[in-house]
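Reopening this one. Same input as before:
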Amino acid sequence: MGFGDEVKDQLSFLGGFKLTFQHLTRPRVTTSYPDEKKAKFPRQHGRHVLNRYEDGMEKCIGCELCAGVCPADCIYVRGLDNPPDHPVSPGERYGYVYEINYLRCIHCDMCVEACPTEAITESKLFEFSFSNRSDAIYTKKELLVDDNGMPQKLPWEDWREGDDMMTSGWMRATSPSGSAAYEGEVQWSGELGYGTRAPEGGQSGHRNDELTGNKALRETLEPHLLPEDIPLAHRGMQGRVWRAKIGAEKNKKKMEAMRVRMKELRTSRKAAKAEGKS
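Same output, byte for byte:
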């Protein structure tokens, strides 16, 4: 063994840093949570909501199919006959009692699939916690959307923009008998506050990612791809310029948000001073 081989053998541990050095030149994937969050996908399974029709009537007819199909036995429903003078739902019955125990719920979305009237869907909100067990049991009052069709926002829930959009988007992608001819066709009744939501597309060209908020995995997970799987336009110097532009746009949005917060803070301080003088 020559002198060069001995030196190479002694410094072989540096090979363990190869992957680290490679990642130093790649874009960061860390986000400043909770101030900054990544966009959630349309098929995100989160907290349930009970929807209304566009005329304000409740979609739930108290059939209890969601409770029957639930594998975690976390849903409790009791139906009641509709009052003739002021019906709650278009059917003969409505959901008088509706409870979901989130200490048991596994967010499998089987309740959404079983519902014949599209009453129960899941939002994209999953960041909610409870200080006691009773808060974890959501009643109809907390699950039913308000008069504008918006989900109830409880104190322990961290709602962000877009968390209420495309609830249970995967249901809108389901086509009868799996026929591709139905893909992209609207098969969802109108909802209060939203109207008829856009259907989600699948593998064919019948899709509108701009309307549904869908993003290709190749775009969102590019930093984790192998070099040969990354598009040529995003490699080398061209890729550095492209990433610099994206970083500049993100920083610009952060600065604008900071300016808005500072402006609101100054306004609130001025208002407090004015009240103190008066």
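So the earlier flakiness isn't reproducible anymore. For the record, The chain has a mean pLDDT of 83.
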